Give the backbone structure.
Amino acid sequence: MEEKLPHRNGGDFPIAVSRMEDIGSLIQQVRKSQGMTQLDIAGLGGVGNRFIVDLEKGKKTVQMQKAMDILALLGLEVVIRKKGKS
C-alpha cells in the first residue's frame, strides 16, 4: 500500500517528476512533514546546509548521488521507467 505524503500536486505517491524544481519542492515538503530542519537533514546526510538549500530550490547542478542519498534519508526512492508507463 502506497503511503500518502504531502506534495503540491495533492495526489498520492508515486508521482512523476521532470524538473529539479519538482524534486526540490518534494524534498522540502517531506522533510518538513517529518519535523526536520535543513540543518538536521544536512547533518544526517553528511552534506553542507548550502547543498540542502540548493537542492530544495531545484538547482540543476547539484550532485546526483548526494541528492539520491538525501531522498533515501527521507524514505524516498527514484524509480526509472519509460514515459507513459505505469
User: Anything to note?
Assistant: Helices lie at 20-33, 38-45, 49-57, 64-73.
